[in-house]
Specification:
about 35% helix, single chain, alpha+beta, globular, about 10% strand
Length: about 60
């Protein structure tokens, strides 16, 4: 999977349509390699629209 392309599609297809407009947020969501913070497959699903477990923060949720 090309995660960089998937992150761009996530920004364009999920964030912008849900009125996330702050360019700093959009840039971070497009550029941050979220896949590096998740366990390896099959648990790795950094682009899906769902809550992801995160040891430090408890969970990552949708930004909207």
């Amino acid at each position: 999977m090309d995660y960089a392309d998937a992150r761009k599609r996530m920004v364009d297809g999920q964030l912008r349509p849900n009125r996330v407009t702050d360019p700093r947020v959009l840039d971070a969501m497009r550029d941050l390699p979220r896949e590096e913070f998740l366990p390896p497959p099959p648990g790795r699903a950094p682009i899906r629209t769902r809550t992801c477990p995160c040891r430090a923060a408890g969970a990552w949720s949708r930004p909207w």
